[in-house]
Amino acid sequence: MDTTEGVRADTTGRLAATVDRLRARVREAHAAADGRALIELARGVLVERLRCGPSAAAAQLAALAQQAGRPQLELAADIVDQASRDTLSEAGRRFLDHVMAEPPDSPESTPVTVRLRTAESGVLSATDTQSVARSLMEHALAPLGAVGVAVWLAGPDSSLTLAGCAGFAADEDRRWRYVPPGVAVPARQALTQRGPVWIESLAEAGIPSIGQRGAPDGSRAAVPAGTGGRILGVLEICWPGRAEAPNQQLWRQIEALAELCAHTLDTPNSGLVLEPDDSVGELVDLADSLRDPTLVLRPHLDATGALVDFRIEHANPRFHDLGGRLRGEVVGGFLLEAYPLVAERGGLFERVERVWATGEPFRAERLDLTALVGQVPLTAAAGVGISRHGGAVLLVWHIEDEAAKLANLLRHAQRLGRIGGFEENLTTGEIAWNSELFALYGLSATADPVPIEQLARHAHPDDAVAIGRFLRTLLHHRRPASTAFRLLRSDGVARHIRVIAEPVPEAASVVRGAYQDISAQHWTEVALTATREQLEHSEQQSAERNRLTLLLQHAIMPPAQNTLRAPQLDVAVRYRPAEKEHLVGGDWYDAVVLPSGQILLCVGDIAGHGIESATSMVVLRNALRGLTATGAGPAQLLTWLNLVTRHLTDRVTATAVCALYDPRDRTLRWARAGHLPPVLITEAGARTLPLIRGPLLGGLADPDYEEGALTVAEGDVFLLFTDGLIERKDRTVEESLERLLATASREATTLDQRLDRLLTHSNSDTDDDTCIVGFQLRRPD
């Protein structure tokens, strides 16, 4: 029996050992599988980051582990943790740059990610907010040098309740259990600003807070803790002495811890009784009992938990939409969809969002509410009240009644128009003025009003006659009257005033009227009259100037036809001035037989219009005629004419074509200065001469002009013209020249007929001067 029991016991022991061994192998297998999976994930990260293959990634991981002196599994965990970049792991990496230096053998040298994971585990397993505060202090904040942490719960009235704390004296939690609304503490500032607050020194800032007795000159960081756009509380961290302000990375770490606290405050584990968030039944009953239009709003969050809008859960029976919509058309939709214009900065949506975030109610006696009615914005002034109740927001408004609205509009119009109204009982002497009339007279609101019969005492003496007529018409003849006068105020300011008044039909001794400050209008009329007179004088001068310019131009180049006849040669010119007198330009021409027997043909165009262009044209035309006496060729003549343009005119620029025809050998020499080339018409048709080199006059100090030459045959026609003949705004110069050549190629009996046809069929649209000079070698009779 004993032997049998011993055998059974031995067998049981062996079975138990086998089970333990198998379990150990299973755990090792799971761990190995997890390790291999983690290494494969790390290799995948390296493949994506390094743009390499799997084998290269495996070799790179092994090389990195060997260089760092760390196992591949540990390095792989760090790589995957970094790639995942979740809130806590990111905070852990950033903590490395800010944690105080620790000795290598310090027991606190545990990796920061491990400490944060430990803090997270402690928070999730905590049974109340006090445990949350201790876990944050021990695992996450102590390495930062912090000596205390407080987690505040925000109340619906902006009060603060201490939900948990760590690192402070034993009696601090009792002394700071509750902070009423309006008390300036760091947590209150963070709640009001809806953002992080840094206080370098509590003593210098003069702000009380928990733990101040132990660290009177310490630094504080306060960060709102909220989810879904709602601030549930504030995380406050205390340092014993002055510390540097956190940088952006450290703020993100603290904000991550605050978000972790917000999740604990939003759960029953906080140990605090929060307002119900799921039911709005009581709030709907409250809204229906109110006498003003009311909306019950619930926050609407996106996939990331961020607040994007508010859903309209309920509208009470007294709901009145500005656009005339019924309750059913609005309920169930979103606030921004129903009223998109409330999203403007400082508008209603921003107010609702702030109330939802902080729980602090909002009241306004007057707030503009705008709705779109047929794409037309309609604005109404209303008194608005917004408050948070549990998980919903109550929006109440009150539209001004018609009488109050009209009164406000009247006051606004009187203020803008600087109009003051009055009513006076001539029998009893009672006078009623509005506030704007006291301002017009420069009197205080408690001063005695001025009777209408004493108006002349406060006016300029020169206006006494006009005021006397006004008073006789109003008071004696009992008819409406008005007049304008200069009001001399007691402060020395003079204002131009218009007064209009009439008797009240139902009360014989009562008159009503209004004063209006027309000073701005008066001085505007004075300035306008002076400007009008100055403009008329300028127009008269301009017209006289244009007339003189036109007379000068016509005296030099008359528009009438001018035909020059020479032996065996017909020379004709045409000049057409601009239709508008103010566009008198500087186009000029010349055709003259020189003493040498040669014939000078030239056209030119001065840039611009007016008397300056006309006088410059006279200078160049006469200078060229005088220079031809030297016997120089066209290129040399243009070189000299360029010097005249630069030194003997008002720095104008011009274009020109100069040609000399010698009838003895029928040769024609010509040169151009920035001008269109001449046209030669032969039996083969019309063509432009080559575009030889030649810059415009007045542009360069030492230009180089090229000279062209040709032999003229019997019947050939040579044409010079200015751009006023062909220039159009809707086509290029090349297209205009092609049209001119087509017109010039047509047969003509005489040279005059040909030039008249060119002018008749010119379709230029620039209204510029036009000059045409042509000669034709006659065939023998």
Detailed description of the structure:
- The chain has 781 residues and is α+β, with helices and mostly antiparallel strands.
- It folds into 5 domains: 2-84, no CATH class; 108-270, GAF domain (Beta-Lactamase), CATH 3.30.450.40; 281-400, 2-Layer Sandwich (Beta-Lactamase), CATH 3.30.450; 405-517, 2-Layer Sandwich (Beta-Lactamase), CATH 3.30.450.20; 554-777, PPM-type phosphatase domain (Phosphatase 2c, domain 1, 4-Layer Sandwich).
- Helix content is 39%, strand content 26%.
- It is built from 22 helices and 27 strands.
- A 6-stranded antiparallel beta sheet has the order 3-2-1-6-5-4. A 6-stranded antiparallel beta sheet has the order 17-18-27-26-23-24, covered by helices on one side.
- A hairpin with a 2-residue loop joins strand 10 and strand 11 (392-399).
- The longest helix is centred in the N-terminal third of the chain and has 49 residues, at 2-50.
- The model is unreliable at 85-110 and 268-278 (pLDDT under 50).
